[in-house]
């Protein structure tokens, strides 16, 4: 079994990857605070890569694209606690505080959080919850989310600009967005949503901008990036296909050979 999750409530999750390497695409509808307990988490965005180890914590803002690569480290599997800061709880929190909400979120990036006794205490307090043989009461779940918000605000004074942003994606430049984010293996509906378009409008605007279908363009761009990674960066095929947006190595190898006349392994061998 590649990954195991314990959900006492949808907002608080203990996750454990039991494989050596586990890959997934990420686009969360809620902000998420992630504490890595063991193993390693690599988060790849369009222009930045983060690596988080045991004891490190970060905030994953909502509606942001990333590839997550979870792997074991020091002989231990990847384990983490994920706390989703739901929009309902955030709205209630800021309304209760009578604080002005942000109009626009000011970051597109993952936010690494500094070491803090408050964070350590917060996550330690949740570990016993995952041993319960019954569902965590919703009221307690919401209290823990409120506690997480309070802790974040105490260690990052700019966090309100992100957490109090309740706006939905607006219609943006499709070409610029796709050129930055083509390596993320998202459904077309998600690409449309993030550019402020319905699926039908997204496909129409895409065809007008690129003179081809989204799937054909995405495949070509991902293969071009893979070729660059193999020839210029000296990376191995097993390390490349995840990062450029392919779901499995065999499909990547097939598409690559069809495009360039040789498999990724054959190309990599010629560069040694």
From TrEMBL:
<protein>
    <submittedName>
        <fullName>AraC family transcriptional regulator</fullName>
    </submittedName>
</protein>
<dbReference type="InterPro" id="IPR009057">
    <property type="entry name" value="Homeodomain-like_sf"/>
</dbReference>
<dbReference type="GO" id="GO:0043565">
    <property type="term" value="F:sequence-specific DNA binding"/>
</dbReference>
<dbReference type="Pfam" id="PF22200">
    <property type="entry name" value="ExsA_N"/>
</dbReference>
<keyword id="KW-0805">Transcription regulation</keyword>
<dbReference type="GO" id="GO:0003700">
    <property type="term" value="F:DNA-binding transcription factor activity"/>
</dbReference>
<dbReference type="InterPro" id="IPR054015">
    <property type="entry name" value="ExsA-like_N"/>
</dbReference>
<keyword id="KW-0238">DNA-binding</keyword>
<dbReference type="Pfam" id="PF12833">
    <property type="entry name" value="HTH_18"/>
</dbReference>
<dbReference type="InterPro" id="IPR018060">
    <property type="entry name" value="HTH_AraC"/>
</dbReference>
<keyword id="KW-0804">Transcription</keyword>
<feature type="domain" description="HTH araC/xylS-type">
    <location>
        <begin position="172"/>
        <end position="270"/>
    </location>
</feature>
